[in-house]
Amino acid sequence: LSIEPLTWIPGPIWFAAKIAFCLFIFIWVRATFPRYRYDQLMRLGWKVFLPISLFAVAAVAGVLLAFGWV
Q1: What pTM, to 2 d.p., does this model score?
Q2: pLDDT tens per residue, range 27-65
Q3: How many structural domains are present in the chain?
Q4: Tens digits of residue pLDDT in 19-31
Q5: Domain for residue 16, yes or no?
Q6: What are the Cα distances from residue 8, in Å, to 3, 5, 56?
Q7: 3-class secondary structure for 14-55?
Q8: N or C: which terminus of the chain carries fewer CB neighbours within 10 A?
Q9: Residue 3 within a domain
């Protein structure tokens, strides 16, 4: 991505600035939200993520069968 006013910045410095920005956002989000307890993670995994993932697998299989890509 070339942003016109910033083309004078050397590539490695621009890359390091982008990485620093991403790290800042990651650390900020991690420090802002509380951690889940182990039992909350298990409940979330079994009651939320497992049904969503099974639905996603079924949806992909349905699309593949519907369009004859299998």
Answers
A1: 0.55
A2: 999 999 989 899 999 999 999 999 999 999 999 999 999
A3: 1
A4: 999 999 999 999 9
A5: yes
A6: 10, 7, 45
A7: HHHHHHHHHHHHHHHHHHHCCCCCHHHHHHHHHHHHHHHHHH
A8: N
A9: no
